[in-house]
Protein: 7-carboxy-7-deazaguanine synthase
Organism: Raineya orbicola
Amino acid sequence: MLQIAQLDKKPEIFYSIQGEGKSIGKPSIFIRLSLCNLYCFWCDTDYTWNWEGTNYPHLNDKNPNYQKFNKADSIIKLTEKQIIAEIQKYNCHRLIFTGGEPLVQQKKLLSLLAQLKKQNPQYHIEFETNGTIIPIPELEALTNQYNVSLKLENSKVRLQERLKPKAIHFFAQNDKANFKFVVDSPKDLDEILEIIQKYAIFHDKVYLMPQGTKPAILRKKQQWLVEICKQYQFNYTDRLHILIYGDKRGI
Ligand code: SF4
C-alpha cells in the first residue's frame, strides 16, 4: 500500500500541466504522495507532513485560521492496482510522482512503476524530489527524469538534513537530473553558487524559481530573478499553475 495525499476523501491524483521546471507546460498526471523527511518553512504541500503534535514552524502560523494537519485524515492508502486505475482514467503518458517527498516510499513504488512500464513502455516517469535520498538501482532504472529541488537556508531546515553530499553527488552525475532552486531573495544566490560549484552542476541544468503562492508575489520577484538567470545562464522557471489557477490543490 502506498500513502497518497488525501483531498476531499479522494487520492490526490490528477491531470494537469506541469507548472514548474524543465517540463513546464507539458500535460502530466500528478500522483501526490504523502510524507516528507524535511519541514520547509514555506512548504505549500504542508498537508503531507505538518502533523498535529509536531513543533515545526510554518509561514502560515501567523494566520489565525491555520492549523496543523490530522495525519489520518490527510492520507489515503491505495494498492498498486487502485493507483493504476486512477492513472488510466487519463489519456496521458507523463507521470509526475511528487509529494511530500516521494522517495520516502521508494521501495513500495518499485512494483507500481514496473507494472506501469510493463503495461506501456511509453510511460515517462518523473520524480519531484528534495535530493536527500539516493534512488535504489531498480527505481533508477525505471525513472526518466529527476527534478531535484535542493533546499536553501530560506527553508529553515537544518543544513545536515537538507544537503546530503552523497545524494547530491548521485544526482549531479546523473544525466536524468535537473536542479530547481526556490529563491526567496537575491541573497540566496551566494548559497546556490556555492552548491553548484561544490558539486560541479552544469549551469544549464539549473532552474531558478521564485518562492511564493500568490501571483502578485511571484511577479515582484520575476524581474530581479530573470536578471540573475541571464547573468549566470541559469534557466528561469515560473510557477505556471499558480499564475493560472491560484494556490489550489488538485489542479
Ligand atoms: S521537501 Fe518539499 S514537500 Fe518536503 S517540506 Fe520541503 S517543500 Fe515541503
